[in-house]
Amino acid sequence: MSCCDLAAGQMLGKAGIMASDCEPALNQAEGRNPTLERYLGALREAKNDSEQFAALLLVTKAVKAGDIDAKTRRRIFDAVGFTFPNRLLTTKEAPDGCPDHVLRALGVALLACFCSDPELAVHPQVLNKIPILSTFLTARGDPDDAARRSMIDDTYQCLTAVAGTPRGPRHLIAGGTVSALCQAYLGHGYGFDQALALLVGLLAAAETQCWKEAEPDLLAVLRGLSEDFQKAEDASKFELCQLLPLFLPPTTVPSECYRDLQAGLARILGSKLSSWQRNPALKLAARLAHACGSDWIPAGSSGSKFLALLVNLACVEVRLALEETGTEVKEDVVTACYALMELGIQECTRCEQSLLKEPQKVQLVSVMKEAIGAVIHYLLQVGSEKQKEPFVFASVRILGAWLAEETSSLRKEVCQLLPFLVRYAKTLYEEAEEANDLTQQVANLAISPTTPGPTWPGDALRLLLPGWCHLTVEDGPREILIKEGAPSLLCKYFLQQWELTSPGHDTSVLPDSVEIGLQTCCHIFLNLVVTAPGLIKRDACFTSLMNTLMTSLPALVQQQGRLLLAANVATLGLLMARLLSTSPALQGTPASRGFFAAAILFLSQSHVARATPGSDQAVLALSPEYEGIWADLQELWFLGMQAFTGCVPLLPWLAPAALRSRWPQELLQLLGSVSPTSVKPEMVAAYQGVLVELARANRLCREAMRLQAGEETASHYRMAALEQCLSEP
């Protein structure tokens, strides 16, 4: 019997090795088949390749892999082993007249049979064949060749079996399977649909690793799917809606895909559809919004209409889902709608280059207000048993995004919900703290309970901070927050978050949201200092906060790129020091002296004398480090100057400390070196306030100012109060 005869015979009985496309050959319940046992014996006793080929052909004719049980399959494996399939897969010297791919097809067929056993699917002899199997997916050859097609089917069967094991996806990714699958799909050859199905499974199981290993190939698939989506006129466009979210990269979607994706979505969402057709489109749009913001939506009339349509549809879905108590909520769809609402909030509050026109913004704010009302209604029904569910977190997130921009509407409803929000934030914070596993809690709360994708922060407090910052200015909401214990919770949260930025922690890996959260906490505390000073004096948590501010500021003011946070800490600490001036911690202790020295450094380095071309006299100008962020910094700076001024008469040791720092002398020297016309009136008032209080508090300060031409400088700047103070003994 020739090799080709054997190969032909093998292909006739080929399905007997595969787990698919087979017919029953024996009744397994009757016991062992004598013929099969005889053939297996011949296979075990084969002395050369020809005898093994012949015996294997007989075995494949006698049994169909889809109909044999695990024990029989294992006996076939025991008889064949891996050595023979290994040789078939790697042989380069086929007998005359026998194509080499026929031998490889037989080897793959054997592996496909073995891989139907989960234990054999993860055998090292199978796993080390992954790179070889992956090459078969993209090998060139006659597309109509039956043996080649069978080999491709068996290859997918092997790879799919490996992917179905717990650690299988990792082995496939490491073996180059993802790139091979991408190329097989893009080539649209035989089995390309199987390539796409396996890619979907691998992305669902190990998205990050897939993108890390094969980003260029996956982006090529995304571009192909996007083009197909834009062109699709039949039901395939709805199938693509479900596939495309899986192929969006975890970082940035290529801009060349924007047009096709937006056009395809516009065609779907602009039509009258059933929910099963519309919902995948909303989820795809949400993934794009989460990954790209509004960058994927074109500017102009078509883009603004499309965005308005998205947000309106999302708001309708949210209201339908949440306003009816007792109805089953499709949480994945509503969560997607939240993402689209958040995009709407961002665009409605954007002043420059917004996609929306003013009438569109007014209309969208109105419909979003109704949808937020439905969210509040839902959250009021949430019991303690549901507080850990991702959908509740997503609902709190969209409410936080709304409150960050709008607190005047729905005020009654928001006040009614505030006790729940404080309890909810406290529950998540305390449980994360006890478990010492905040990172894992964050990772477990994703954009959607069912859709793979980038995770959202699991830090509920951080989401609520901007809204609470607005609400603490208003009497009613502030009283509720105080009554529910929000200030104490915020102090604990601030101290915990501050630890993440302290020495010993790698601040380079921290998200920007940590520092932004700390700044927003400072703003809330500033509001409480101004509106509820009695709370600061009586609540012990603020004493702990003050201690942290004092010990942290000296190092913070020295760090590059953290000036805005330093400004918040310095200003808050100075304002709190006025209220807590009788505290032992502020009576000239090393910590208090270090804090005020750092505060003086922050306040004194904001401005410098700068020469101007064509003029003999310099002008007062912002320091380079302050200049770029002065718009965000100036209010804190002026408030800090006022607070420092107020601290001087309350802390007797502060004026001598300021004198030793040479701040008053250097300030007068600075004013004397610049043109008075270059110093704005508000700057003159701020400088005079500090100088007057220092002069009044300490005789040595007055003498030092006189020696620095203080009276003359006061006269030039019309600082009447300072001039009078320095004229006194």
Shape: elongated
Give the proportion of residues in helices.
55-70%
Count of discrete alpha- or pi-helical segments spanning 4 or more residues: 38
Assess the beta-strand content as a share of residues: under 5%
Q: Which strand order does the major sheet show?
A: 1-2
Biggest sheet: strands, sense, closure?
Answer: 2 strands, antiparallel
The radius of gyration over CA amounts to 36 Å
**Structural category:** mainly alpha
Distance between the termini: 124 Å
List how many beta strands DSSP finds.
Answer: 2
| Global mean pLDDT | 85
- The unreliable regions are 1-30, 434-457
Structural write-up:
Helices cover 69% and strands 1% of the residues. It contains 38 helices and 2 strands. It has helices at residues 3-12, 34-45, 49-62, 70-80, 83-90, 100-115, 118-121, 124-127, 130-136, 146-163, 168-174, 177-187, 192-231, 236-243, 258-269, 275-292, 301-322, 331-349, 358-380, 390-403, 411-435, 438-444, 460-471, 475-483, 486-500, 512-531, 533-538, 540-556, 563-579, 590-604, 624-627, 630-647, 654-661, 663-673, 681-697, 699-707, 710-716, 720-727, and strands at 607-610, 619-622. It has a two-stranded antiparallel ribbon. A hairpin with an 8-residue loop joins β1 and β2. The termini are far apart.
